[in-house]
Amino acid sequence: VQRVLTGIKPTGTPHLGNYAGALRPAIEASRRKDVESFYFLADYHALIQTTDPLRVVRSTLEITATWLAAGLDTSHVALYRQSDIPEIPELTWLLTCMTGKGLLNRAHAYKAAVDKNTEAGEDPDAGVTMGLYMYPVLMAADILMFKSNSVPVGRDQIQHIEMARDIATRFNHQYGEHFVLPEAAIDENVATLPGLDGRKMSKSYDNVIPLFAAPAELKKLIFSMVTDSRKPGEPKDTEGSALFQLYQAFADEAQTAAMRQAFADGIAWGDAKQVLFEQIDRSLAPMRERYHALIAEPAKIEACLREGAERARAIATPFLAELRHAVGLRRLD
Ligand code: TYM
């Protein structure tokens, strides 16, 4: 069997990029009979980004409800909260001892922080926590704990998965073949969903479209999207058009081909936005309804996460015992 695993940080309200880039492909993958799936709320990772406890709690509820509303079958998939698995931080330490500092110096997120500080003439590590620095090791523990072969993620996570492979390789070389080497699974069509301003849709760019925005808000956001100055009747480029890419992520092939033609025929931007709005609204409406029903019952969501944690721990507990033994953390008798 294939093991598929992915995580989402509970730092805010889920957006279209999280859905198209992570949830939707992960749910599709989980429907295959020969697949075992592990999907989780990366709440330890969230602490690196926010110090607002209520935000983490609220977001955990919202993202779990989103998984369920999007059709995840929890009788077949372990859906859990990272912090319910105490074996994860313990494995993180074992991996930390196998991780070169130089490897972490090259991590994109850490380097970006250092570059920004350097440009501003500040201490290179100003504001950088050890949490940010260690981020890839914690993520490697998430992945390696469950012997995942396939990790469906957006493009921004590829480096992290390569690092997990590096760390696993070094551990295996030192202590024997305990870990499976994971691979990133990227859906080429939606590898990076653009946001309102054409950059990657991301909370940190403040350009997101919330997945469950009410229709009026959804419409307003879509109409605020940045487009070029081409007039109605002038052919438009699909290449590099955020509007087109968003449409493609929520349309089938025939609809996408029709939109491509409309661009070539010079559809007015306002009309294109209207079509995009209707398409997204239509494809999300049933899920939105389920979501609002679910979010009103936090106790049910909590029970679901508990059950997922039990399943995940049934694997993590014996595997960690094996690893402890392998590195020499053993009883004496
Ligand atoms: P996070 O919470 O930032 O994002 C969750 C997932 O959504 C994808 N994503 C996007 N995909 C397409 N277009 C976008 N605009 C877009 N924005 C976000 C991300 O690539 C990601 O797949 N480090 C991870 C969480 C994590 C994890 C893991 C993932 C922790 N441990 C183990 C996989 C395996 C993160 O910050 O995702």
From TrEMBL:
Q: Where is this motif: 'KMSKS' region?
A: 200-204
Annotated binding of L-tryptophan, by residue: D142
Q: Which GO terms describe its biological process?
A: tryptophanyl-tRNA aminoacylation
Q: Keywords for this entry?
A: Aminoacyl-tRNA synthetase, ATP-binding, Cytoplasm, Ligase, Nucleotide-binding, Protein biosynthesis
Per its record, the protein catalyses: tRNA(Trp) + L-tryptophan + ATP = L-tryptophyl-tRNA(Trp) + AMP + diphosphate + H(+)
Oligomer and partners: Homodimer.
Recorded E.C. number(s)?
6.1.1.2
Look up the record and report any one GO term of the cellular component aspect.
Answer: cytosol
Query: Record's family?
Result: Belongs to the class-I aminoacyl-tRNA synthetase family.
Biological source species: Pseudothauera nasutitermitis
Coarse class of the primary localization is: cytoplasm
A GO molecular function term, named singly, is:
ATP binding
- Name of the molecule in the record: Tryptophan--tRNA ligase
Q: Where in the cell is it found?
A: Cytoplasm
Q: Where are the transmembrane segments?
A: none
UniProt entry tagged with the keyword Disulfide bond: no
Task: Report motif location: 'HIGH' region.
Answer: 10-18
Q: Carries keyword Plastid?
A: no
Role description: Catalyzes the attachment of tryptophan to tRNA(Trp).
Binding positions (ATP): K9, P10, T11, G17, N18, G154, R155, D156, L193, K200, M201, S202, K203, S204
The full protein's residues present here are 13 to 345 of 448
